[in-house]
């Protein structure tokens, strides 16, 4: 009996005594917040394992590093446009008139312990953050991960990318060095090109004539408070939706629209994510320590009458600058007003192109009329038109990036800047079309290869001589898992208007939107965009005999 009492006096190995302080706190929190039930339901949630899924984590961890380093820099930076005479540690600039913002940037770089390292980590993290978001969105785009129910999450990610670009622009401009000041001057010129209200917008932003003394104090709260706060909320909402919708996964055995194959959140995924965070942070610190970036002391303070040679924005703004640099200097003079088309047209195209990217999931959903949920990703080769559009946009970006740096390209490659400008003007129209056509043909070729592999197997490298003297290579049948991956995609019919006359001979009304939708559906998902995948009968007919060669 004593032995029985000693055993029954313990529940799960715990003492039968009164609960400890930690247990009381856990019970108190669970009774008010329901943490135990929430954790029990979600901590074992499965996440697929694929290298491309780490792109989103790189964005998240870079954003965390940006916040941490930004807080440190905020403690020492003084966002003031008041002019002072520098007399600090960097002797080449002693006696030079500059703003207090530039002076405090020099103080951070040369006098604050670890200041230059933190500045460079902050800048590198910002570049990696925007790069990671763009590559992550391209992965989402090419694989169709934006489809229902993730259209809203695509908009969140798109908004984060836009805000990341604007935040980068505002942060890039805060030091008030000659390079960033040239960038602000470029932005002010683009704002002035807006018809009717351009001058008013410029005066409102700069507090009067350019450059004024108000732009740095105004950009500072936008950069350190407003935009990061909005982005933090969007990141939280983005992660909540990822968690709620469950993660997408690439096609494979055991994976369907309702089943996830992967690792549990606790302890496997959490441990891997934690280790990956320190890897990303370590790489950013390594880059900040050995790779110099934005040496403002080499440019000097901003002066409106000077401009830096080879002034270039960070790469993510090269798209907009390339549009303006390669545009002819068209202008219209009417009724005493000048409309600068050479600036206003590309200045308008930049947001329009980005808006089309943000709206694409809704456009494709309207074209297909598909209202189902999709949790299995597309292989890019199986949707060649969408893949071609993505590659065409990337090629356009690359061409305009060359245009935005035409002076740097000219000096480094010893080419004529006029030749580069005309090349970009022509390539803007030609290269995206060629990229689309080539990408589509490559995707169709890969579809044909997949079909051939399913029917005939993979090449084994074994050469066999047939009785009549012919030499052939023996093919080995594919495993069932690989057969499933190559044939799981759907090839449904595209949207069509149907007969224009009904059974009673009455002509059906067909709207313009229906005609446009049908033409787009045929162009994007019609017979010319896919190679029919093998049927079960074709596979059985070939695999039943001696056809594996």
TrEMBL record:
InterPro entries: Cyt_b/b6_N, Cytb/b6-like_sf, Di-haem_cyt_TM. Residues 25-251 form the Cytochrome b/b6 N-terminal region profile domain. It catalyses: a quinol + 2 Fe(III)-[cytochrome c](out) = a quinone + 2 Fe(II)-[cytochrome c](out) + 2 H(+)(out). It holds the Pfam family Cytochrom_B_N_2. Its cofactor is heme. Residues 10-23 have a biased composition (Gly residues). Residues 1-24 are annotated as: Disordered. The chain crosses the membrane at residues 53-77, 121-142, 154-174, 186-207, 219-244, 273-293, 341-363, 383-403, 415-438. It is a multi-pass membrane protein. Its EC number is 7.1.1.8. GO terms for molecular function: metal ion binding; oxidoreductase activity; quinol-cytochrome-c reductase activity. Keywords: Cell membrane, Electron transport, Heme, Iron, Membrane, Metal-binding, Respiratory chain, Translocase, Transmembrane, Transmembrane helix, Transport. This is Cytochrome bc1 complex cytochrome b subunit. GO terms for cellular component: plasma membrane.
């Amino acid at each position: 009996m004593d032995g029985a009492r000693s055993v029954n006096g313990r529940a799960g190995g715990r003492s039968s005594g009164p609960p400890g302080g930690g247990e009381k706190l856990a019970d108190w929190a669970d009774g008010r917040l329901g943490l135990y039930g929430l954790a029990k339901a979600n901590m074992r949630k499965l996440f697929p394992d694929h290298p491309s899924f780490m792109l989103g984590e790189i964005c998240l961890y870079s954003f965390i590093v940006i916040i941490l380093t930004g807080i440190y820099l905020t403690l020492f930076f003084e966002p003031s446009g008041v002019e002072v005479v520098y007399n600090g540690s960097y002797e080449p600039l002693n006696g030079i008139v500059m703003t207090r913002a530039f002076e405090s940037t020099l103080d951070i770089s040369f006098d604050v312990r670890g200041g230059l390292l933190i500045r460079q980590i902050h800048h590198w993290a910002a570049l990696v953050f925007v790069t990671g978001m763009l590559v992550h969105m391209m992965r989402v785009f090419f694989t169709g991960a934006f489809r229902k129910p993730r259209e809203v999450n695509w908009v969140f990610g798109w908004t984060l990318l836009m805000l990341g670009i604007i935040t980068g622009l505002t942060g890039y401009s805060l030091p008030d060095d000659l390079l960033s000041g040239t960038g602000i001057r470029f932005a002010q010129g683009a704002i002035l090109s807006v018809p009717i209200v351009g001058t008013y917008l410029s005066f409102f932003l700069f507090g009067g004539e350019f450059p004024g003394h108000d732009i740095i104090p105004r950009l500072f709260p936008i950069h350190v408070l407003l935009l990061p706060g909005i982005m933090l909320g969007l990141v939280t909402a983005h992660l909540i939706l990822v968690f709620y919708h469950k993660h997408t996964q690439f096609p494979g055995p055991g994976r369907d629209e309702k089943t996830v194959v992967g690792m549990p959140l606790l302890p496997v995924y959490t441990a891997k994510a934690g280790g990956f965070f320190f890897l990303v942070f370590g790489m950013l610190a390594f880059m900040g320590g050995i790779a110099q970036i934005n040496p403002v002391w080499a440019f000097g303070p901003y002066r409106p009458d000077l401009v830096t040679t080879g002034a270039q924005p960070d790469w993510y703004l090269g798209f907009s600058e390339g549009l303006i640099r390669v545009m002819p200097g068209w202008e219209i003079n009417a009724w005493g007003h000048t409309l600068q088309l050479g600036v206003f047209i590309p200045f308008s195209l930049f947001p329009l192109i980005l808006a089309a990217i943000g709206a694409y999931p809704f456009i494709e959903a309207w074209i297909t009329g598909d209202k189902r949920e999709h949790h299995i990703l597309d292989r890019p080769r199986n949707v060649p038109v969408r893949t071609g559009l993505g590659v065409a946009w990337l090629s356009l970006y690359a061409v305009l990036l060359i245009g935005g740096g035409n002076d740097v390209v000219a000096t480094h490659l010893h080419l004529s800047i006029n030749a580069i400008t005309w090349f970009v003007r022509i390539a803007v129209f030609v290269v995206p079309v060629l990229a689309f056509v080539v990408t589509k043909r490559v995707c169709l070729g890969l579809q044909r290869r997949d079909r051939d592999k399913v029917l005939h197997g993979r090449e084994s490298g074994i050469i066999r001589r047939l009785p009549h003297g012919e030499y052939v290579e023996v093919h080995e049948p594919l495993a069932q898992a690989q057969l499933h991956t190559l044939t799981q995609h759907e090839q449904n019919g595209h949207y069509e208007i149907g007969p224009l006359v009904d059974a009673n001979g009455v002509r059906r009304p067909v709207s313009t939107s229906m005609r446009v939708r049908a033409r787009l559906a045929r162009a994007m998902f019609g017979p010319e965009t896919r190679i029919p995948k093998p049927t079960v009968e074709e596979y059985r007919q070939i695999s039943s005999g001696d056809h594996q060669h």
